[in-house]
Amino acid sequence: MIKAICKEAELRQQYINEAIGTIYFGGGTPSLLETTDLQLQIETLRKLFTIEAQAEITLEANPDDITAEKLTGWKSVGINRLSIGVQSFFEEDLQWMNRAHNAKQALHSIQLAQKHGFDNITIDLIYGTPTLTDAKWKQNLESAFELNIPHLSCYALTVEPKTALEKMIATHKIAAADADQQSRQFELLMHWSAVLGYEHYEISNFAKPGFRSKHNSSYWLGKPYLGLGPSAHSFNGSSRQWNISNNALYLKSIDQNIVPAETEELTLTQQLNEYIMTALRTREGLKLSLVKHKWDENKMNAVEQASKKFIEQGLMLSKEDHLILTRRGKLFADGIAAELFF
User: Fold this and answer.
1) Cα distance between the two ends of the chain
2) How far apart are CA 187 and CA 83, in angstroms?
3) Collapsing DSSP states into helix, strand and coil, what is residue 33?
4) What is the spatial distance between Cα 58 and Cα 313, in angstroms, rounded to a whole number?
5) What is the mean pLDDT of residues 293-314?
6) SS3 category, 245
7) 111 near 163, Cβ under 8 Å?
8) What letter does residue 63 receive in the DSSP assignment?
9) Rounded to whole angstroms, what are the CA distances from 195 to 59, 141, 207, 229, 260?
């Protein structure tokens, strides 16, 4: 698989025609890989593409995979940012989510990473689970602050289909999540993160100054990106491409010098709708003059007109050429964006 991913990078060398500012190992559990596997991929990318000297190179890691040996190896091959799937610092929450690691490992993995020189760390935290009281949710955030974690990605629990969690809820072995609790804890998250010095720069993301995720920010800014491997998605500014998810078929196709992917050409209207959706999720919001420049003045006027009712309801602000969701408006971000779509 690693060799195939490297070969796909060769086959798609012309997809990105600019310097690469970020590399992200995710989409599964890359912390299971040997250091030599990561090294081969990074070296391949450096041969094929222009990688910026200060590129952000992130690795997603499960707490139970993190060891001193692996951290030393990751550092040696150029990994300079870790995304650790903590989810919670409480045992009962992790058990409810059926996570492989425990609370002690969650804490230890962060401390060990910091000891090995990783200061650019983000952790995932989940809120809205039946076992998580508001007080415990606040403690989770305070734990992150005390550990000096510079970046948090916080998500309301989503129960994916065909998972063990979904089956346990369906068979009433565990309680389902509560929507009102999730909304309340999201509002508490916005308040407490601000108090603790985090910048709420995207709906689910909070960073200390200077620690925004460069990689994820590229998605929200509509920059081109190349995804490698089964199920990976790519975007070149006007079309979206996604690889097949079947591992065996992926390997067979790459062996035959064929990239097994489907492509969707985005219309100008689809591109505008995507901009509306992603821009409203960010701290800076939607830039009206950009809509006018990239699409046309009529589109800008229509967006401005459609936003008036949300401004009147206190869900949105109009500020210096930008439409920005208020704290309460962020609770309804997807619905508001949908009403501005064309």
Assistant:
1) 41
2) 24
3) coil
4) 40
5) 96
6) coil
7) no
8) G
9) 29, 11, 12, 40, 48
Q: Where are the alpha helices (DSSP H) in the chain?
A: 2-11, 35-48, 68-77, 91-96, 103-115, 134-146, 164-170, 179-195, 214-220, 247-255, 268-280, 288-294, 297-312, 333-340
Q: Which domains does the chain have, with CATH numbers?
A: 19-220 (3.30.750.200), 268-340 (1.10.10)
Report strand pairing: 316-319 vs 322-325: antiparallel
Token output for 25 = 């190992």
Measuring CA to CA, which residue among 128, 138, 136, 133 is closest to residue 181?
128
| CA-wise closest residue to 208 among 137, 124, 144 | 144
Q: In which band, very low, low, confident or very high, does the pLDDT at 126 lie, cut at 50, 70 and 90? A: very high
- Distance between CA atoms of residues 184 and 89, nearest Å: 20
How far is 45 from 79, CA to CA, in rounded Å? 14
Model confidence band, residue 203 (pLDDT cutoffs 50, 70, 90):
very high
pTM comes to 0.92
Residue 22, phi then psi, degrees to nearest 5: -145, 145
35-48 vs 68-77: helix crossing angle, rounded to 10: 10
pLDDT tens track for 224-239: 999 999 999 999 989 9
What's 282's DSSP letter?
A: B
Cβ–Cβ under 8 Å, residues 91 and 139: no
Which three-class secondary structure state does DSSP give residue 151? strand
Helix (H) or strand (E) holding 325: strand 322-325
**Phi, psi at 152, each rounded to 5°:** -125, 135
pLDDT at residue 172, as a whole number: 67
* Mean pLDDT, the chain, integer: 93
Cα dihedral 173, 177, 178, 182, rounded to 10, equals 160
Q: Cβ contacts of residue 310 below 8 Å, gap of 6+? A: 316, 329, 336, 339
Reading the block at residue 140, the tokens are: 């989770």
Asked if the model's pLDDT at residue 195 lies above 70, the reply is yes
